[in-house]
Amino acid sequence: MGDLSLGHFVVLGGILFALGLFCVLTRRNAIGILMGIELVLNSANINYVAFARYNQTGYDGQVFAIFVIMLAAAEAAIGLAIVLGIYQSFETIDVEATDRLRR
Questions:
Q1: Is residue 89 assigned to a domain?
Q2: pLDDT value of position 100
Q3: Which residues are CB-contacts of 7 (< 8 A; sequence separation ≥ 6)?
Q4: Are 36 and 27 contacting, i.e. CB atoms less than 8 angstroms apart?
Q5: Within a domain: residue 42?
Q6: What is the pTM of this model?
């Protein structure tokens, strides 16, 4: 297998970011939107760790990645709690149905 350069990881992170953004913008299901957000956060983690590895900056990228993982865990817990609350009220997790919350 050939050597992997920083560019390979940046391209991988960009692809994951694009897929996550596509999920967030096109899904009507709240669980799908949360999964898209997780993809975006994971693309940031890949870039943090890759830049730290190839720029020899120590453990800065890993530390930022740990903080992003903690943020993702909190986002998942709160997001799923909101989704469960919406499901109990409207018996659907379609985000279009939540416009009734404004009335």
A1: yes
A2: 66
A3: none
A4: yes
A5: yes
A6: 0.83
